[in-house]
C-alpha cells in the first residue's frame, strides 16, 4: 500500500467514527447561524480538495516543498495516524455533547478532562496534525495550502465556540481558558 493510500485509509477511519458517533446527541439549546456553518464547511472542503488532488495540476500548487526522501512518507503516515487517533479520542470524550456546528446542547457541560485537560480544541489539533502528516506525504505546496486553509477555518470556528462557551459558563470557562492552550497545550 502506498503512503498516500494508507493516509486515505486512516482518514476513512475518522469518517466512519464521525458518522457512527453522530447519533443520539443531546438536543441543541442554541446553535450558530446556518450560513456560519456553511462557511466552516467551505474552508474544510477547500482544504480536503487540495490534499486529495495531489499531482493533478502543474504550477505553484503542484511544486514540491520538500525533497523526495524515503523517510518522509512513513513520517507523514505516522503523523496522519496520530492526528486522527487524537481527534477520535477527543470526539469520543465529548460524547453526546459533540456537534459539527457551533452549538450549546441541553444539559451542556464544560469538559475539562481527557484531551481537554490541556487543550481547548483537541479535535482541531488532531485533524490539523493529520492534515500536516498527509501534506508531508503529498510533498507539494498544495498540502501546505490545505493545512493553512484548515487552520484559518478551525481558528474562526473555535473563536465562535469560545464565545458560546463564555456565554454559557462565564467565569468557569474563563478559568479553563487560563489553564489551557487553544490548539496546543499552554506552556508555563
Task: Throw out a few tags for this protein.
188 residues, mainly alpha
List the helices and strands and how they pair.
Blueprint: H1 3-20, E1 28-31, H2 34-52, H3 72-94, E2 103-105, H4 122-138, H5 141-169, H6 171-179
Antiparallel strand pairs: 1-2
Helix pairs in contact: 1-3, 1-4, 2-5, 3-4, 4-5, 5-6
Description:
With 188 residues, the chain is mostly helical. The protein has helices spanning 3-20, 34-52, 72-94, 122-138, 141-169, 171-179; strands at 28-31, 103-105. It has a two-stranded antiparallel ribbon. Helix 2 (34-52) packs antiparallel against helix 5 and helix 5 (141-169) runs antiparallel to helix 6. The chain starts with a helix and ends in a 9-residue tail after the last helix. The model has no long low-confidence stretch (mean pLDDT 92).
Assess the beta-strand content as a share of residues: under 5%
N-to-C span: 42 Å
Low-pLDDT runs: none
Helicity range of the residues? 55-70%
Mean pLDDT reading: 92
The main pleated sheet reads as:
2 strands, antiparallel
Which shape, going by the Cα principal axes? elongated
Q: How do the SSEs run, as a string of H and E?
A: HEHHEHHH
| Structural class computed from helices and strand pairing | mainly alpha
- Helical stretch count? 6
Amino acid at each position: 500500500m502506498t503512503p498516500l493510500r494508507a493516509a486515505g485509509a486512516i482518514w476513512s477511519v475518522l469518517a466512519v467514527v464521525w458518522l457512527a458517533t453522530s447519533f443520539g446527541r443531546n438536543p441543541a439549546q442554541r446553535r450558530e447561524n446556518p450560513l456560519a456553518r456553511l462557511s466552516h464547511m467551505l474552508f474544510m472542503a477547500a482544504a480536503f480538495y487540495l490534499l486529495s488532488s495531489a499531482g493533478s495540476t502543474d504550477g505553484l500548487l503542484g511544486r514540491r516543498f520538500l525533497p523526495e526522501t524515503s523517510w518522509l512518507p512513513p513520517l507523514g503516515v505516522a503523523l496522519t495516524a496520530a492526528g486522527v487517533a487524537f481527534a477520535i479520542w477527543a470526539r469520543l470524550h465529548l460524547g453526546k455533547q459533540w456537534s459539527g456546528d457551533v452549538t450549546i446542547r441541553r444539559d451542556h457541560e464544560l469538559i475539562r478532562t481527557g484531551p481537554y485537560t490541556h487543550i481547548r480544541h483537541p479535535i482541531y489539533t488532531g485533524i490539523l496534525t493529520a492534515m500536516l502528516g498527509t501534506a508531508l506525504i503529498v510533498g507539494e505546496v498544495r498540502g501546505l495550502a490545505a493545512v493553512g486553509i484548515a487552520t484559518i477555518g478551525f481558528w474562526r470556528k473555535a473563536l465562535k465556540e469560545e464565545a458560546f462557551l463564555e456565554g454559557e459558563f462565564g467565569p468557569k470557562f474563563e478559568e479553563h481558558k487560563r489553564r489551557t492552550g487553544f490548539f496546543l497545550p499552554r506552556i508555563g
